Amino acid sequence: MEELKKTIRSFTDVSDSDMEFGLQFFKKKTYKKGTFLLKPDQYIDDFYFMKKGCVSYYTIDAGTTRVMEFFSEGYFFTDLYAYIQEIPSESYLEAIEDSTVYAISKADQLKVFDHSHQLERFGRLSMQRTFVINFQRINQLRNLSNQERYLQLLEKRPSLFQRVPQYLIASYLGLTPVGLSKIRKRLSEKR
Amino acid sequence: MEELKKTIRSFTDVSDSDMEFGLQFFKKKTYKKGTFLLKPDQYIDDFYFMKKGCVSYYTIDAGTTRVMEFFSEGYFFTDLYAYIQEIPSESYLEAIEDSTVYAISKADQLKVFDHSHQLERFGRLSMQRTFVINFQRINQLRNLSNQERYLQLLEKRPSLFQRVPQYLIASYLGLTPVGLSKIRKRLSEKR
DNA sequence: GATTCTTATTAAACTAGTTTAATAAATATC
DNA sequence: GATATTTATTAAACTAGTTTAATAAGAATC
Fold first, then answer.
1. What tens digit of pLDDT does each residue of B25-34 get?
2. What is the pLDDT of residue B124?
3. Taking Cα atoms as reference points, which of B82, B109, B107, B77 lies closest to residue B94?
4. Pick from A68, A120, A131: CB nearest B131
5. Structural domains in chain A?
6. pTM for this one?
7. How far is A118 from A13, CA to CA, in rounded Å?
8. In whole angstroms, what is the distance from residue A116 CA to residue A119 CA?
């Protein structure tokens, strides 16, 4: 659990005893490619840390798959929207590669936050981090063209293009596969 | 400061003594219509609660105004992106009506969170609330047409349309004034 | 190695926006 | 109350995407 410990401490100082107290509640889980951590109408009780692999977070909306995020190594993740509000999920969390995660239940997480002010602060700061990422996402959606967002993804997460089929990347970018193909053609003709 | 107290307690229990400790740091400030709480390149040190009025949160990008949010009564707000990261702002916070806010400095807020675990929890939970709102925003941007987002705004915040000129609402929706006008025409012809 | 299945590209017709410019309507100012 | 200014609408030409359908390319299976 060294990666997990290190990632927590990248947010804020946590004493060894508080860290030990917190980590005891995380359970290692593995998912084969194509299996689901979560499906629509289920309640989500776990908060995850991705050790190895990749999970696609998506909805199916009138037959259309809409990928919201790909969670790969080092990501904290869950269906945060359903998790926070304690409502049934509308989404899928599907392992699109064989994946190993550490999971902590909501009740255990609350125990940890009650027990440790430092870890509650970690919770607040990791929410802040999520805020920053979502804020950038909103600005990209509002201010950039699809082509610009494609190029930015290519730059920021190049490994995704090795790991994930193009039609899922198109969905993540809010495009049809045809639309993404056109953009790629346009770009290849330019140079 | 009754509204502020009530709004904090809508998130989590806070004892009277912690609440009193926290509230002492909030200062009442007033801004005339057309004045600025923040301009680009400034650092933002305050976290605000809107008591009365309306503030527009926007950037100007190559001459184009892009409204990100309108903060009206009952909102907690700041340029959260710059505030969290302690980087110079790229945005304006402009009073588009005469406005009264309560402000707490970042140093004072940290004092409050250090002093009170309950108020730190309020901090975490209000970040969570912000997450939920931003998540919905992202999904609206990804999954709804401009027309649908216009109709949704009309339904959720009808008073904005009385208070704010249409070209700013167009900007908030990510449209040109011409585009919004077309949508309105299309809708009025339908019925 | 041929066949099947999945994924990616291309073409054609269409759509909801854009820009620019002109005009109309509403608001503020003298 | 006339004039100037700001805000909203309309028109025309354009653009970046959509959908549907056909085809091509790549990967998996027998």
1. 999 999 998 8
2. 87
3. B77
4. A131
5. 2-143 (2.60.120.10)
6. 0.90
7. 7
8. 5
